[in-house]
Amino acid sequence: xxxxxxxxxxxxxxxxxxxxxxxxxxxxxxxxxxxxxxxxxxxxxxxxxxxxxxxxxxxxxxxxxxxxxxxxxxxxxxxxxxxxxxxxxxxxxxxxxxxxxxxxxxxxxxxxxxxxxxxxxxxxxxxxxxxxxxxxxxxxxxxxxxxxxxxxxxxxxxxxxxxxxxxxxxxxxxxxxxxxxxxxxxxxxxxxxxxxxxxxxxxxxxxxxxxxxxxxxxxxxxxxxxxxxxxxxxxxxxxxxxxxxxxxxxxxxxxxxxxxxxxxxxxxxxxxxxxxxxxxxxxxxxxxxxxxxxxxxxxxxxxxxxxxxxxxxxxxxxxxxxxxxxxxxxxxxxxxxxxxxxxxxxxxxxxxxxxxxxxxxxxxxxxxxxxxxxxxxxxxxxxxxxxxxx
Length: 390
Ligand SMILES: Cc1cc2nc3c(=O)[nH]c(=O)nc-3n(C[C@H](O)[C@H](O)[C@H](O)COP(=O)(O)OP(=O)(O)OC[C@H]3O[C@@H](n4cnc5c(N)ncnc54)[C@H](O)[C@@H]3O)c2cc1C
Description:
Elements: E1 4-11, H1 15-23, E2 31-35, E3 48-52, H2 53-62, E4 72-74, E5 76-81, E6 87-91, H3 92-95, E7 101-105, H4 106-119, E8 123-126, E9 128-135, E10 140-146, E11 149-160, E12 174-191, E13 198-203, E14 209-214, E15 217-225, H5 226-234, H6 237-248, E16 255-258, E17 262-272, E18 275-276, E19 279-281, E20 287-288, H7 296-316, H8 324-352, H9 357-372, H10 374-386
Parallel strand pairs: 1-2, 1-11, 2-8, 5-13, 11-19
Antiparallel strand pairs: 3-7, 4-7, 5-6, 9-10, 10-11, 12-15, 12-16, 12-17, 13-14, 14-15, 17-20, 18-19
Helix pairs in contact: 1-4, 1-7, 7-8
This protein binds flavin-adenine dinucleotide.
Residues 11-17, 34-37, 47, 49-50, 128-130, 161-163, 165-166, 184, 186, 221, 264, 283-284, 291, 294-298, 300 line the site of flavin-adenine dinucleotide.
């Protein structure tokens, strides 16, 4: 079987893989995008994604933002620590941007990117499951099954955007894993109080709980120890609403309705290094973070933006793509943002998810200081919005 040659093969057509394919579409490159699933059903994934203003700008440029059926602006972020004093409120004025971010649904985002990808001339194959890949100095080689047929291709650059499943096949890349023993429970909920564009992030000793404005309601991401999460998922609606109210507090009044609930086991998983011979890792394949502070997809989107930019520059300079020099540039450009996102989310969990009263008082003092020092507030807000270059 003769392998078809491409410039770039993207393995994994989740939101990050599709975003990269779209970012490369006007470069006269032959790009193949391989995705194991088809378009997931609406019921598949109800997780909300808090997208930063920076991600909004990138998705707008890709033509996907305009296809979203719903997005809800975040105008204020209210951060508190259950059982302790201290809180901080971040506003658009603090960050110097018109909105702090938007809440969208994972499926809606997937669908918007999917529609634009299908309409483009990208070679996009769904139902294509990659089994194996290898590289030599000149090319990457991929074997996959496409609707039951075995296929082989080669490309100057392989990009792994598969969420971190295949990376263990690469000898010189190590995945560092830290299990949090926490699950995130996602659901849409309605409270007595209507949402007014405020996103609530409340730290508790069992894990953070976020209530994000979403349409007329709230999108809940409730983190709990694994055993407690399984128990919470099994409650009937009334019991669930009561438990949520006693855990979150009375800031929004009683909770009156909850939609379908889903649970996601949480771990920090990151690759070192994020490149290998003829290979670059992006999105969750490079780093999977705790959802606290909504960083994962935003970071993954910045991976695609920078990689597409480096590929564009390489072409402009009449150089070959996928060389060690190009990959080194990608790795170095992403290091600070990726490490920053990882350390930020991991430190929040380590600091706040524990029962140590001294540490909790210090965290409360930190929130109060943050609230009273506008330059630091601006620094934190802009880094959450634009990453390391904020
Ligand atoms: C509860 C929860 C809440 C979150 N909230 C936020 C938030 O508010 N803001 C934020 O920025 N991030 C958030 N995240 C993180 C965000 O969901 C991820 O960072 C993002 O989905 C990563 O996208 P991805 O495309 O890299 O990976 P994925 O979404 O995992 O996509 C990988 C794709 O690769 C495909 N694939 C896998 N293996 C193969 C193979 N062998 N062959 C072909 N295809 C393959 C899969 O089918 C899949 O479509 C949250 C995560 C969770 C769990």
